[in-house]
UniProtKB/TrEMBL annotation:
This is DHA1 family inner membrane transport protein. Gene3D superfamilies: MFS general substrate transporter like domains. GO terms for molecular function: transmembrane transporter activity. It comes from the Bacteria. Coiled coil: none annotated. InterPro entries: MFS, MFS_dom, MFS_Efflux_Transporters, MFS_trans_sf. It comes from Pseudonocardia cypriaca. It is found in: Cell membrane. PANTHER family: CHLORAMPHENICOL EFFLUX PUMP RV0191, PURINE EFFLUX PUMP PBUE. The keyword Transmembrane applies. Pfam families: MFS_1 (PF07690).
Length: 408
């Protein structure tokens, strides 16, 4: 994918510091996004709402990111990228403190929705800026540095935040996220270079980015993430009620899952290069088998930990292939389409959180895992059918290199 003309050339050290700052921003936002999962019981009890109702916090964030992120990106497209990042982090700090300073569940949901939209904006602008400060041949590595902030937040930020919540209360965890956001703001002010707007081109790409084949590929993302988050959103109640663990031990299990997601996301890139379509089928099968095992051995802690490891490996191992398939199938619309997988994934997260909430509210703590299993089984034929989709045949030689069709 071609990079746009960005800020003046930076020294290697300044470039690395800027990328590290974007990594930190992604780490903080990723930690804040999933923190609710590990603190759901505490939040529900403190605010006196049912656990399924508390799950709305996950769905609200996901919908904010999926819908609000692209909207904010479009509205701010002509502004300096550094200015956008600064304003985004400032608003995140303020909104993260809303649930700390109030007992209103409605305000909590509203704040989470807006933070989700700001998260989507940060992701979009962060990728553009990262690619602009490195030579074109290093654009992919720059993106990997930035996105790894999300992977590390899953592996470390969420379990540590959950542990803080167990010791200091869930508001203490949100305060910690706000403090880290202040650090990210200072780093952004000092280390991120100015990058004025450089024009568009989205209109000419839209017919390729939103073609039926691309939308079909995005459907795989939606179903796959719905399967994962039907179970993951309510994994703490499952661990407490079925597995019989509580308190700080839960953080250990979440850490195992987080470490597996980090490893899976990095390993998944290699499989995506080999055959992304096949990887999505194998990953869907792996998620289904992992959830089946989790349900069957739910009362045995050691086996539950192993099932969560496999669950994380397969679930996040699919992510690089999801991104790759969408970009390939979009052809000349690859740059615009590259922003769509995150939205599709968060639609799936919202649907999964809702489905799991309905199940756990109607039946038992284990029903969310069963719901995830059912959706995962459905995702297998969806991924298989999407594997037959082919990229557009375009005579224009300027099609981005990332849109090169993958081998059969």
């Amino acid at each position: 994918m071609q990079t746009s003309t960005g800020p003046a050339a930076l020294s290697r050290s300044k470039t690395n510091l800027a990328l590290a700052t974007l990594f930190l921003g992604m780490f903080v936002l990723g930690s804040g996004e999933l923190l609710v999962v590990g603190l759901l019981n505490l939040i529900a009890a403190d605010l006196q709402v049912p656990i399924p109702t508390a799950g709305v916090l996950v769905a609200a964030y996901a919908l904010g990111l999926a819908i609000g992120g692209p909207i904010l990106t479009a509205l701010t497209i002509r502004l300096d990228k550094r200015t956008i990042l600064i304003a985004t982090v400032v608003l995140v700090i303020v909104l993260t403190l809303v649930p700390v300073l109030t007992t209103s569940f409605g305000l909590f949901v509203a704040a989470r929705t807006v933070i989700g939209a700001l998260h989507g904006l940060f992701v979009a602008v962060g990728f553009v800026l990262a690619m602009s400060i490195v030579p074109p041949e290093r654009g992919g590595r720059a993106i990997s540095v930035v996105v790894s902030g999300l992977f590390v937040s899953t592996a470390l930020g969420v379990p540590l935040g959950t542990l803080v919540g167990q010791v200091l209360g869930w508001r203490g965890s949100f305060t910690a996220v706000a403090v880290l956001s202040v650090v990210a703001l200072i780093a952004t002010l000092l280390l991120i270079p100015s990058m004025p707007s450089t024009g568009g081109g989205a209109g000419s790409q839209a017919k390729y980015a939103f073609a039926p084949r691309v939308l079909a590929a995005l459907a795989v993302n939606v179903v796959a993430f719905a399967a994962v988050y039907s179970a993951l959103t309510y994994i703490v109640p499952f661990l407490e009620s079925v597995t019989g663990i509580s308190g700080a031990v839960i953080s250990v299990f979440l850490l195992a899952y987080g470490a597996a997601t980090a490893a899976g996301s990095f390993a998944g890139g290699r499989f995506a290069d080999q055959n992304a379509a096949r990887t999505l089928v194998v990953g869907s099968i792996g998620v289904a088998v992992s959830l089946l095992v989790l349900h069957l051995v739910g009362t045995i802690p050691v086996l539950v930990a192993l099932a969560l490891l496999a669950f994380g490996l397969f679930a996040m191992g699919m992510v690089p292939s999801m991104q790759y398939r969408v970009v390939v199938l979009a052809g000349p619309g690859a740059q615009l389409a590259s922003s769509l997988p995150a939205s599709a994934a968060n639609v799936g997260i919202a649907l999964g959180a809702f489905a799991g909430g309905v199940a756990i509210g109607t039946f038992s703590a284990s029903s969310a895992v069963i719901t995830g299993l059912i959706i995962a089984v459905i995702s297998i034929p969806v991924a298989w059918a999407a594997g037959f989709l082919k990229p557009p045949v375009v005579a224009d030689a300027t099609v981005p290199a990332v849109a090169t069709p993958e081998p059969a």
